[in-house]
Amino acid sequence: MSESTKKGLLDLPLKVILTEEGASHFIQNKKKLLRIKLADNIEEYGISLDSFAPQTIQQMILVDYISKLEISLPEFSSSKQDVMDLTKLVVFSLLYKQFDKEVYATLIDSDCVRRHNRANPSQIIDERAKITDRQVLFHLSNKEDVISKARKAILDPLWLSIKENPDLTPEERNIFMLMTEKFLMRMSRLNWYVITKFYNQTGFEEILRRIDILLKDYMEKGRVAEYISLMVMELALNCENTNMRQEVKKMYRGLPDTDMLIYDPDIRKKIISEMVKKHEMVFISWKLGGGSSSIGKQGRLQITLYNKDDEFQEVKESIETKKSADLRKRSLIDFYKELPEGSEGVDLGLYYLSYLDEACKKVNVKFESLVNQYSVSNLMVITLAFNF
Question: Would you say the pTM of this structure is higher than 0.85?
Answer without folding.
Answer: yes
